[in-house]
Amino acid sequence: MTGEISRAIASTAYQTYEKRLLKEIASRPVPGHVAVIMDGNRRYAKEFGLLVAEGHEKGKEKLEEMIEWCLELGIRVLTVYAFSTENVSRGTDEINNLMRMFAQNFRNLADEERVHKHGIRVRVLGQREMLPEDVRESIEYAEERTKEYSEYSFNIAIGYGGREELLQAVRKVARDVRDGTMRLEDINEDTFYGYLYTSDLPDPDLILRTSGEERISNFLLWQLAYSELYFSDVYWPGFRKVDFLRAVRSYQLRKRRFGE
């Protein structure tokens, strides 16, 4: 009985704190674009005696919650780092499981009522050629079904590496200069941005990383030039709504100078 009372008190305190944070956040502008490095699925699984696959499944469920939190706050663009070019070095079983999850989840996302209700456009950033055919087909299905939407944007970085994105952009610029479709004097920040995966997206206002690691890990290297960074000690599957609200509040309390 004592344990039940303690849990009830803790739950009430949590809900009260969450409501207070929501009220505080609602009084200030929220970030337009939040990017998330979802780190810690495997360590979470190890800590709680789960299989690695179960840790990734918990991470997927947390991402679904994150989408809902962004909708609630009116955050229009969400970009998540799901699978990097470096992740291909992981074990075969883990990679195969992740690819099966991606293939299924993109189809589920494309058919999800919430996506169509809120007009969420789904896009993938990265080197699709390195992904299995069924994953590429699922990505195309999701992108095709949501391509006309513009209320919200949900971007998933898969097979993504920031340095490779920049190298690809440089190659395209060099090719256009060689072919005469661009002059050297026309190359500036704005024209170069048009060659990136995120060419029609705003730069992230807030980049959030979970698991306690404090590095960018080759994510959106050009785009984060003036982003606010926030690091959380919590593993991604254990990331709570109040943790997210604290990150947004931290962003709101900062004075963005953009190099001034």
Task: Give an overview in words.
The structure is a single chain. The model has no long low-confidence stretch (mean pLDDT 94). The protein has a domain at 30-161 and 206-253: Undecaprenyl pyrophosphate synthetase (3-Layer(aba) Sandwich), CATH 3.40.1180. The longest helix has 25 residues, at 2-26. It has 260 residues and is an alpha/beta fold. The chain is globular. α6 links the parallel β3 (120-125) and β4 (152-160). The protein has 9 helices and 6 strands; from the N terminus they run αβααβααβαβααββα. 32% of the residues are buried. A 6-stranded parallel sheet has the order 3-4-2-1-5-6, sandwiched between helices.
Structural topology:
Elements: H1 2-26, E1 33-37, H2 41-47, H3 52-73, E2 77-84, H4 92-111, H5 113-118, E3 120-125, H6 133-146, E4 152-160, H7 162-179, H8 189-193, E5 206-209, E6 228-231, H9 241-253
Parallel strand pairs: 1-2, 1-5, 2-4, 3-4, 5-6
Helix pairs in contact: 1-9, 2-3, 3-4, 4-6
What key phrases describe this protein's structure?
260 residues; alpha/beta; Undecaprenyl pyrophosphate synthetase; six-stranded parallel beta sheet; 9 helices
Structure in a nutshell:
The chain has 260 residues and is an alpha/beta fold. It is built from 9 helices and 6 strands; from the N terminus they run H-E-H-H-E-H-H-E-H-E-H-H-E-E-H. Strand 3, helix 6 and strand 4 (152-160) form a beta-alpha-beta unit.
From N to C, what is the helix and strand string?
A: HEHHEHHEHEHHEEH
Overall CATH architecture of one domain: 3-Layer(aba) Sandwich
The profile of the biggest β sheet is: 6 strands, parallel
Q: Can you tell me the CATH class of one domain?
A: Alpha Beta
Relative strand content: 5-15%
Q: Kindly report the CATH topology of one domain.
A: Undecaprenyl pyrophosphate synthetase
Unreliable spans are none
User: CATH superfamily of one domain, please?
Assistant: Decaprenyl diphosphate synthase-like
Strand order of the largest sheet: 3-4-2-1-5-6
The gyration radius over C-alpha positions equals: 20 Å
N- and C-termini, Cα separation: 58 Å
Shape: globular
Helix content: 40-55%
